[in-house]
Specification:
The protein is 44% helix and 11% strand. With 219 residues, the chain is an alpha/beta fold. It has a 6-stranded parallel β-sheet, sandwiched between helices. Helix 1 packs across helix 2, helix 1 packs across helix 4 and helix 2 packs across helix 3. The radius of gyration is 18 Å and the shape is elongated. Bound molecules: magnesium ion.
């Protein structure tokens, strides 16, 4: 079987550890470039609150800058800050049991990673979470968040039928809809933003701990 994982909020705790750090760095950058804030902590809290309500950090920053007077031109430096390298000592926690489960599954299955984002930053996150990249037979990083062509490429490359592929991710639209369209088994990881999504009846399994994959893949 081929098991395709998403990275952010599936294997690593992006929402809990990276997003709050990056949002604070972003706010500092915005201030250094001219954004006026009267109370840093207050603005930071506002930004986090917007982020919790948004579909992604990009949308949160757009809303935040639209609500600040004459500041929307700062969107580009703000977005750039979100993917600049993390500090040297920064470590990223995985979601519970992620490394153990990857190791366990890799004994009898092929594992791939399809993660959306800025490729150098995605690879840095893997490294800072201490996930050995060689455990994946294939790593694909679509910058535009469109995963379907990569899923199709994997099924061709591994010469598999759709029922031999499982996709596990936290984002229904990005990770699971294209998998469902291709006839793959879908596993919704409820973590980070994924905890707020309403489930869909076509999703095969819903989990909040990757250990549950042991049971799912056995059956
Ligand atoms: Mg994700």
């Amino acid at each position: 079987m081929l098991i395709i994982f998403d990275l952010d909020d599936t294997l690593i705790d992006t929402t809990g550890f990276i997003t709050p750090f990056k949002m604070k760095e972003c706010l500092k950058t915005l201030i250094s470039q001219g954004l006026k804030v009267s109370d840093f902590d207050r603005s930071y809290a506002d930004l986090l609150e917007l982020n919790a309500k948004s579909s992604g950090s990009r949308e949160a920053l757009v809303q935040f800058l639209k609500s600040a007077k004459d500041s929307y031109h700062l969107i580009e430096p703000a977005l750039q800050e979100m993917t600049t390298p993390l500090p040297a000592g920064f470590t990223i926690p995985t979601t519970p049991n992620a490394k153990e489960i990857l190791k366990f599954l890799s004994k009898s299955h092929s594992i791939a990673l399809v993660t959306a984002g800025h490729p150098p930053f995605q690879m840095e996150k893997l490294e800072k979470a201490g996930i050995d990249r060689t455990i994946f037979s294939k790593i694909a990083i679509p910058e535009n968040s469109i995963k379907k062509p990569f899923y199709e490429g994997l099924i061709r490359e591994f010469s598999l039928s759709a029922d031999q592929v499982l996709v596990c991710g936290d984002r229904i639209a990005t990770d699971l809809v294209p998998a469902y369209e291709l006839g793959f088994t879908t596993v919704h990881m409820r973590w980070g933003r994924g905890t707020t999504f309403k489930t869909e009846e076509w999703i095969n399994h819903t989990i909040s701990d990757l250990s549950e994959l042991k049971r799912i893949i056995k059956t």
